[in-house]
Amino acid sequence: MDLTLPPKVTERAFARLHEIGAGDSGKALRVAVDGGGCSGFQYDISLDDPAEDDLVLAGTGDTAGERVVIDAVSLPFLENAVIDFTEELIGARFVIENPNATSSCGCGTSFSM
User: Is 111 domain-assigned?
Assistant: First the structure.
Protein backbone atom coordinates (compact mmCIF):
# COMPACT_ATOMS: atom_id res chain seq x y z
CA MET A 1 0.00 0.00 0.00
CA ASP A 2 1.44 3.38 -1.06
CA LEU A 3 0.93 5.92 1.70
CA THR A 4 0.97 9.54 0.55
CA LEU A 5 1.71 12.19 3.09
CA PRO A 6 1.19 15.95 3.09
CA PRO A 7 4.27 18.13 2.90
CA LYS A 8 6.33 18.65 6.04
CA VAL A 9 7.41 22.12 7.16
CA THR A 10 10.68 22.39 9.08
CA GLU A 11 10.98 24.28 12.35
CA ARG A 12 13.50 26.55 10.58
CA ALA A 13 10.82 27.58 8.04
CA PHE A 14 8.25 28.26 10.77
CA ALA A 15 10.90 30.21 12.73
CA ARG A 16 11.58 32.44 9.70
CA LEU A 17 7.84 33.13 9.32
CA HIS A 18 7.80 34.06 13.01
CA GLU A 19 10.82 36.40 12.53
CA ILE A 20 9.11 38.30 9.73
CA GLY A 21 5.81 38.52 11.64
CA ALA A 22 3.67 36.63 9.12
CA GLY A 23 1.29 35.20 11.71
CA ASP A 24 1.00 38.51 13.57
CA SER A 25 -0.24 40.14 10.35
CA GLY A 26 -2.71 37.29 9.67
CA LYS A 27 -0.72 36.02 6.68
CA ALA A 28 0.47 32.52 5.86
CA LEU A 29 3.20 31.23 3.58
CA ARG A 30 1.43 30.02 0.43
CA VAL A 31 3.23 27.28 -1.50
CA ALA A 32 1.68 26.62 -4.91
CA VAL A 33 2.68 24.79 -8.07
CA ASP A 34 2.01 26.43 -11.44
CA GLY A 35 2.61 25.24 -14.97
CA GLY A 36 5.59 26.94 -16.60
CA GLY A 37 9.18 27.64 -15.73
CA CYS A 38 12.13 26.17 -17.56
CA SER A 39 11.34 22.58 -16.47
CA GLY A 40 7.54 22.39 -16.85
CA PHE A 41 6.34 23.33 -13.35
CA GLN A 42 7.36 26.10 -11.01
CA TYR A 43 6.87 26.89 -7.35
CA ASP A 44 5.03 30.06 -6.39
CA ILE A 45 5.90 31.03 -2.80
CA SER A 46 4.28 34.10 -1.28
CA LEU A 47 2.66 35.53 1.84
CA ASP A 48 -1.08 35.31 1.41
CA ASP A 49 -4.41 35.00 3.20
CA PRO A 50 -5.50 31.39 3.78
CA ALA A 51 -8.45 30.25 1.67
CA GLU A 52 -11.27 28.01 2.85
CA ASP A 53 -10.16 24.93 0.88
CA ASP A 54 -6.41 25.19 1.68
CA LEU A 55 -4.49 22.54 3.55
CA VAL A 56 -3.12 24.39 6.59
CA LEU A 57 0.14 23.26 8.21
CA ALA A 58 0.62 25.02 11.55
CA GLY A 59 3.65 25.67 13.70
CA THR A 60 3.85 24.57 17.34
CA GLY A 61 5.44 25.95 20.48
CA ASP A 62 7.13 29.31 19.84
CA THR A 63 5.85 29.30 16.23
CA ALA A 64 2.24 28.36 17.04
CA GLY A 65 0.76 31.33 15.16
CA GLU A 66 2.59 30.58 11.91
CA ARG A 67 0.95 28.73 9.01
CA VAL A 68 1.87 27.31 5.63
CA VAL A 69 -1.04 26.83 3.22
CA ILE A 70 -1.34 24.74 0.06
CA ASP A 71 -4.26 24.80 -2.36
CA ALA A 72 -6.00 21.59 -3.44
CA VAL A 73 -4.64 21.74 -7.02
CA SER A 74 -1.00 22.04 -5.87
CA LEU A 75 -1.22 19.43 -3.10
CA PRO A 76 -0.70 16.30 -5.28
CA PHE A 77 2.53 17.81 -6.65
CA LEU A 78 3.83 18.38 -3.11
CA GLU A 79 3.07 15.01 -1.49
CA ASN A 80 5.87 14.01 0.89
CA ALA A 81 7.83 17.22 0.13
CA VAL A 82 9.77 19.20 2.73
CA ILE A 83 9.37 22.99 2.94
CA ASP A 84 12.45 24.56 4.51
CA PHE A 85 14.25 27.89 4.85
CA THR A 86 17.91 28.26 3.96
CA GLU A 87 20.49 31.01 4.27
CA GLU A 88 23.41 30.77 1.85
CA LEU A 89 25.97 33.14 0.36
CA ILE A 90 23.63 33.82 -2.57
CA GLY A 91 20.78 34.77 -0.25
CA ALA A 92 18.09 33.49 2.07
CA ARG A 93 14.97 31.80 0.74
CA PHE A 94 12.29 29.20 1.31
CA VAL A 95 13.15 25.96 -0.50
CA ILE A 96 11.23 22.82 -1.36
CA GLU A 97 12.74 19.35 -1.34
CA ASN A 98 10.30 17.46 -3.54
CA PRO A 99 10.67 13.68 -3.97
CA ASN A 100 8.11 13.80 -6.81
CA ALA A 101 10.33 15.96 -9.03
CA THR A 102 12.29 13.94 -11.58
CA SER A 103 14.53 16.90 -12.43
CA SER A 104 14.93 20.55 -11.57
CA CYS A 105 16.75 23.52 -13.00
CA GLY A 106 19.55 25.54 -11.48
CA CYS A 107 17.22 28.28 -10.23
CA GLY A 108 15.61 25.89 -7.72
CA THR A 109 12.07 27.09 -8.45
CA SER A 110 11.33 25.01 -11.54
CA PHE A 111 10.97 21.23 -11.80
CA SER A 112 9.55 18.41 -13.90
CA MET A 113 7.68 15.24 -12.99
Answer: no
